[in-house]
Design a protein that fits this description.
With 95 residues, the protein is an all-alpha fold. The chain is built from 4 helices and no strands. The radius of gyration is 25 Å and the shape is rod-shaped.
Length: 95
């Protein structure tokens, strides 16, 4: 009888976990008013195919100043392999 009860509780817990995992969707991040203004400006300036979005080719055509502006307000993630700022280079390892 105990085995049946343990199995039923285990099945109930597993079902609850699966149902909860299916219900959770990542929330769409709302843009701040500053981000909305910058995004609207960039779309107006660089959206060549007029679809309301910036695709890879349109983003590649952006000036570095505009890319920095988007990064500053949090719309672009800085590249992982970006060169380090001047003066922060680590000393070379001895051989």
């Amino acid at each position: 009888m105990k085995k049946l009860l343990v199995a039923a509780i285990g099945l109930l817990c597993a079902t609850a976990i699966v149902v909860q995992a299916q219900d959770t969707k990542p929330a769409k991040k709302d843009l701040t008013p500053e981000q909305q203004a910058v995004m609207k400006e960039m779309v107006a300036k660089y959206d060549t195919n007029k679809d309301g979005k910036l695709d890879k080719t349109e983003r590649a055509a952006m000036s570095q100043e505009d890319k920095d502006k988007m990064t500053k307000v949090g719309l672009n993630k800085p590249k992982k392999n970006a060169p380090a700022a001047a003066g922060t280079n680590a000393p070379a390892a001895d051989k």
